[in-house]
Amino acid sequence: MITRFTAIVALVGGTLASGPGPHRASPALAGGTISGKVTYTGTPPKARPIDMSKEPSCVAQHPTPVTTQDAVTGPGNSVEYVVVYISAGDEGAAAATDTVRYEQKGCQYIPHVAVMQVHQPLAVFNDDPTSHNIHPLAKVNAEWNKSQPKGAPPIRTTWDQPEFIAVKCNVHPWMHGYFVVLTTSHSTVTDSTGAFKLEGLPAGKYTVTAWHERFGRQSQEVTIAGTETKTANFVLTARPY
Amino acid sequence: MRLVPTCGVALLLTGVTALAAQQTNVAGKTGNAAHGKPLYTRYCAGCHGDDGDAQGENAQWIDPKPRDFTLGIFKCRSTPSGTLPTDQDLYNTVTRGFVTTNMPPWVALSPQNRVDLVAYIKTFSPRWRTAQAGRPINVPAEPAPTIEGILRGRQLFQGLECWKCHGPAGHGDGPSAKTLTDSKDDPIRPYNFETGTRFMCGETNQDLYRIFMTGLDGSPMPSFADQLQPNQAWDLVHFLRTLQPLKTPEAAIWRSWFSTHGRELKPIGPEGEGQ
């Protein structure tokens, strides 16, 4: 079992060299690494095709029909779009200054889940030839709702409090994504193989948390000493709709 | 014997006042949350709930649902989307009620009673303790309506895709209308201009200007403040008036122009100009 996971992590580690997360892919990050894979047990919901026929300009952008992204699973029970982050042990991290991009393209949010730090700049772009409204359903932060017609400049903002904020477009009800606002500077989102990698961790004791919008969250403690790579795998419980 | 109840009242007042985040002031009157509480219990709690959480005993029969004051999110504001309304905004809402909903106008209560209610409503959400009301948006002087302005407003209605929800003729029947939900996932209808009723947040052209420039927070109606210059916003106001079956100056200008030029117009909707 251990060898299998190690093999997967090693394999994935190679493909992840550039890092999928919003948080930087600096080539030489000093410190330790936590990497692993997120899988599920149970029965996940089936991805459903999205009917965009009410927005022909978006239908035209998708040669093959698009499916829902709130529970994307792959071979080996892997789970994509899981946010993996340091939930304890990294207090007091300064906000990153690079801007997180969130795009509306083909009536979908890209990326489906955008991770950012408290006070980190966020820019929302509309690349579509149609109007969208961006409606982050914040509960801890202030909820707002702004129109962004085609060709409009990006909406730039920041968030004051850590929160998992569902985002929707009321004009196109199938559009659904997340702003994940965290205090830590160490976070990432699993790729299509369910793999993740948190790099550049100073020596210390950390709580690593994996969060998925439908399968909930799970935490484990990992201690990093020096430049080692530790493995942390998560098995979330999948629930059908 | 006399001392005990007096002390009790004093303690109660202190408790409620401590809950009130900031002072509440409307037109020279200061609200008192402790005075607002019994009024709230008598007139508001039946729908909005004793705890302001929209779980009053009548709430289950009401559609749209009563406002949940614990969220600190309000539709009718003079302030930008995502900010708290002013005391005056809340006072106006209590006074005006919400047309086409179960919220009546509370004009029967004295102005001081209404200010006290506003003060008490502000105790339900922690947002009032951590944030200030937003700065009201500027509503510049309204230009006189012209047919050119109305036609520009019509292009905005097309280009900004207001028709996606409100419908090509403003009947509230656009392609997205049936799918709309509010921030609590309850179904909600877009305003139907054909009914000619008052708007959700007032009845004047200034109110209409504020509605689409600030957005109705907690509902699907977004803010267009980043997208419209003031003169464009007035053009849109003047066009929207032509969608109502009312005897407004805008409607008169529109009807007179339309009788001779109507056939030149391209329809609003997916085939419209600029789509």
**Could you name the ranges of chain B where pLDDT drops below 50 across 5 or more consecutive residues?**
1-18
Largest sheet of chain B: 2 strands, antiparallel
Got a strand count of chain B?
2
Q: Report the average pLDDT across residues of chain B.
A: 92
Report Rg of chain A. 18 Å
Strand content of chain B: under 5%
Number of strands of chain A: 19
Separate helix tally of chain B: 11
Helix percent band of chain B: 40-55%
Distance between the termini of chain B: 78 Å
Mean pLDDT score of chain A: 89
Structural class of chain B: mainly alpha
Q: Indicate the radius of gyration of chain B in whole angstroms.
A: 21 Å
Shape, principal axes of CA atoms of chain B: elongated
Plain-language structure description:
The complex is a heterodimer of chains A (241) and B (275). Chain A has 2 helices and 19 strands. With 241 residues, chain A is mainly beta. Chain B is mainly α. In chain B, 40% of the residues lie in helices and 1% in strands. Chain B has helices at 3-19, 33-43, 45-48, 87-96, 111-121, 127-130, 147-159, 163-166, 205-214, 230-242, 249-261, and strands at residues 25-26, 29-30. Chain B has a two-stranded antiparallel ribbon. The radius of gyration of chain B is 21 Å and the shape is elongated. The N and C termini of chain B lie far apart (78 Å). The model of chain B is unreliable at 1-18 (pLDDT under 50). At the A-B interface, strand 9 and strand 10 of A face loops of B.
